[in-house]
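How a chain folds remains the central question behind the approach discussed here. For one protein, we set the task of working out the structure tokens from the amino acid sequence alone. The sequence in question and its structure tokens are set out directly beneath this paragraph.

_____
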Amino acid sequence: MATQIFVNLHVKDLDKSVAFFTKLGYTFNPQFTDENATCMIISDNIFAMLLVEPFFQGFTKKDIVDTSKAQECTIALSADSKEAVDDIVNKAVAAGAADKPKKDYGWMYHASFEDLDGHLWEYVWMDPAGPPPHQG
């Protein structure tokens, strides 16, 4: 069995988060969905568990990060093209996300947004040939 990743994110309003990510084209596994959480399917082996804050708090003794003041992580996902990067970010912004500046290095392109709960999502396209040879 391939290793799977489940990124757990706290959310204030599960229904609003599900509506937001549905607009981006994501689907959810009903087997792992109730009033406390849902399992957002990102790919065959990557999932985001969206947990309402009181439920999320039950998994840690630490404070939940206030995303308006601190960044707990960046969720970075690959995209098939620069256009695919722009498409998902544009959908997110249209659905209420905060847009961040795009960066184009020629061989690598990325854009990001903050979701409704302030989590930073970054989508990246990289040229399969990799970066140009180092000059120096």
Q: What stands out?
A: Strands lie at 5-11, 27-29, 37-41, 46-52, 74-78, 98-99, 103-104, 108-114, 120-126. The chain has a mean pLDDT of 95. The first strand starts at residue 5 and ends at 11.
